[in-house]
Amino acid sequence: MRAFRALTLNTVRAGFRNRIALFFTLGLAVLFMVIFGELFGGSNFSVTYGVVDHDGSTQSQQFVAALRGIKGVTVNTGTRAAEIDDLRNNHVDVVVEIPHGFGAALTAPGAPAVSVVPIQASQTSSSASIADQILGHVLSGFAARGAAPPVTLATPVSSSVNNVTAIDYFLPAMLAYIILQSGINYVAIGLADLRARRVLRRFRATPLRPAQILGAQIAGGALTVILQLIVLAAIGLTFFQAKIYGSWFVAAVPMLLGVAAFVGIGFLLTSAARTSESARGLSSFVAFPMMFLSGVFFPITTLPGWLQTTVHVLPLTWLTDALHRVMNDGVGLDAIALDCLVLAGWAVVTFAIATWRFRWD
Amino acid sequence: MISANGLLKRYGALVAVDGISFSVETGEIFGMLGPNGAGKTTTMEMLEGLREPDEGSATVLGSDVVREARAIKTRIGVQLQATALPPLTRVREAIDLFGALFPTARSTDDMLREFDLESKATTYATELSGGQMQRLSIALALVNDPDVVFLDEPTTGLDPQARLNIWDVIEDVRRRGKTVVLTTHNMEEAERLCSRIAVIDHGRIVALGTPASLIAAHAPGTTIEFDAPHGVDEEALAKIEGVDKVTVDARVAVSTRAPERVLRELLDPDAHWLRRGDDGQAAGIRDLRVRQGTLEDVFIALTGRSLRT
């Protein structure tokens, strides 16, 4: 046991000293969070509304002022034709039409309900969806003050129960990314290198059992991933103010199963490759498509239908899904049982095949 | 200490080790000398419990290398060819790590001092010079204070200075009562270090004995080498009294057990066995060298090939 522990800890230490591997795991994950945080929700976020005020009441002016008061928001006002023109030329992100009767709906009991209509150039752009969220937020503040007939937003945008920001969405995605990359970098490539450089053979000349030698390398890889997950979560929560709506204890279950699955895949890649070069090549071949297709960087729903079916075979799809649902939607373990089962299945199958096919040289 | 009995190892159709038998006594430095691919490393790895022989058997320290491999591994020290260490590990950490892999180990500080690595304790192993790396790898082989140490080509690739240093280290190891088994394709190393040598070629032991006995048996006498500008009459040269053998390559080599008599003949500028130039003038021999037989000669005599090829 002492020998196993010493070998495992040596592997973890070497893992954290390996700057290249560290860059591709923790480093890139943090970098992605910075980039996406800036793009979609960071402090430099800005949105420009073009408001067309058909009502011209005190209330509609107060609404425009409230919108203006939000950090990063710019509001232009003008005629419908002028604002639509600005929207076409990308001078404004969203045109907002305040209908006749807006003020009346807020002040006079019994007045008919009205809807504020946002007009967007593209339904899918992220900045537009955030613009909608801000609009809805301001509007709901107004509606609360108002009288009986509610003022509503014509197209409700946020389908999520929680008010999930870009960084809240990217933190679970990046945790999944680290699990994928670590399994590749620390096990597939790491183990293949040890074998090619005859380090494994050198260990076999000690009283260690073969299973202890392999086990220590794999445990060391898994431990390295787990430590990186803790570091990344801490960075996300403190520096990026990411919010987690579910329980960390629930999230830990798919994460640990994911670590097992991807360490298993790494081990399998070592067994499949004869040299460390081919282990590297195979790893990229496996990691890159998964990274881009499994919902880490953009939702799976944007993929064509046939591809959506295909990516549901990949373990990263299930891991990303489980983490999003626990951390963003706040679901419990029962809701992600299938995801966990698939990940566990991947772990069992890859370890079984890898152990069976592994060659010492 | 060690006894090998008809060890045989095949890799597919290739018979890498073809029935090797020998024994090693306590306190010996036993050398396996032979060219690359002769089967030295495979033989050693069978004794270390790293490879199972296809035929034959061997015992190390009284234990069977196949059935009791783990018991053997706690009591032997191993240095593999082209030393392999885990990546991004410092010298002190490497000694600590390998110490932790054995039930008992010597103190890391002692090892650093003994192998002159104290100043390199916090250096990454990959940044050591060739000689330092070899010292570390021998230190790692000795960290469990083994009774037998296996060193696979301990000086290959080192510069002459570092090689001399490693020879001192190995002699120190023997002085402390360890038995050493080493492989080499350097005859000087074998001659200087080894109490006994097995000359191995194509997976077989072609000769076994002390360096002196091997030379006496297979490369007796003296070799006289020289250049002849216009060539020599090989037959006439061979008939000179006292000449045992003549080989003409780039240089002429004459083997003899009566060097004084033969030299007198060779130094005659008008000798009848010297070919003359186009002008009919004789030219004496040049660049004369006289040397005693070496293990290199033993190897050539036994296999017809040079060790270095």
- End-to-end span of chain B in angstroms? 33 Å
Strand content of chain B: 25-35%
N-to-C order of helices and strands of chain B: EEEHEEHEHHHEHEHEEHEHEEHEH
Biggest sheet statistics of chain A: 5 strands, mixed
- Radius of gyration computed on alpha carbons of chain B: 24 Å
Record field, number of beta strands of chain B: 14
Query: Strand-and-helix sequence of chain A, N→C?
Result: HHEHEHEHEHEHHHHHHHH
| Helical content of chain A (DSSP H or I, runs of 4+) | 55-70%
Mean pLDDT across all amino acids of chain A: 84
CATH-defined fold name of the largest domain in chain B: Rossmann fold
Q: What structural class do helix, strand and pairing data of chain B support? A: alpha/beta
Number of structurally distinct domains of chain A:
2
Q: Report the uncertain regions of chain B.
A: none
Radius of gyration of chain A: 26 Å
Number of helical elements of chain A: 14
Largest interface: A-B, 25 and 24 residues
What keyword list fits this structure?
heterodimer, A: 361 residues, alpha/beta, abc type-2 transporter like fold, 2 domains, five-stranded mixed sheet, B: 309 residues, Rossmann fold, Alpha-Beta Plaits, four-stranded antiparallel sheet, 14 strands, 28% strand
